[in-house]
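FW: tagging you since you asked about this chain on Friday. Here's the raw sequence from the shared folder, copied in full. Didn't touch anything.
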Amino acid sequence: MTNFPNWIEAKNHSLWLTEDDRDNLKISYRVKEVIYSEQSPIQHVMIVDTVDFGRTLVLDGVVQTTALDGHIYNEMIVHVPINLHPNPKKVLIIGGGDCGAAREAAKYKDIERIDMVEIDELVVKACKDHLQEVSGNLSDVRVQFIFTDGIQFVKEKTAEYDIIIVDSSDPVGPAEQLFEYDFYANIKKALKLDGIMVCQSQSPIFHQDILKQTSEHIHNLFVHANTYMAVVPTYPGGFWSFTIGSKHHPIKSGHLREKVTTKYFNEGIFQGCFQLPQFMKDLLE
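HL: got it, structure written out here
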């Protein structure tokens, strides 16, 4: 067998991917084929074809998105803020190397520019070539790929964007800074006077400390702040949270500003996603 990283192993004549980032919960996926496996200067990048989830992006042994359900996460982190803003023209996405978030934002004809700041160019290349169920092999002229550190990038921006989407990986290693107060303060500075930001804020089941911390940071910085959720089967526990902050516009879901093609998001989801289970309300109060 080809030498693969230690999170891929052969068992009973089958390949299995076992996520390597948690001590108390190990999730394994039966793999039909390893499509792509390369080490970038930042991390190991792998695309595998799994039995249940189809093609899957794996970074340093951790599943990031899949052909089966990646659209849920990407639609929810993009369409909610875009539908809360009355006239977004310029969007910044920090992270999102699978191109799924940029692909969703590009569905809106009135958006003029989408800057996608991703630190690892190899992730974008791998997903455009081998995970087109998520990336759509994105080639919209409005999307500007900027391969640099998103933390430093946003420090240098002032009142430039209508919407900023923080599509980060889990808060491990360098990504920890994407969950800190100073980073969110720089996000606020980079937004226009009526700007809106959103970030993924982890599992309300397994990462309650991160969710609570993120909610407190955003509430302290923005005039309006709220948390919403979706169900993403790939992610541990299924429930996944997003925290949104607005400098001016109230965070109140209503009618969709423009009809675009989606698989998960619709007007009913938009209106209901801010209705949280009682345990989340208790946690965030």
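FW: The first strand starts at residue 8 and ends at 11.
HL: agreed, and The chain has a mean pLDDT of 93.
FW: great, closing this out.
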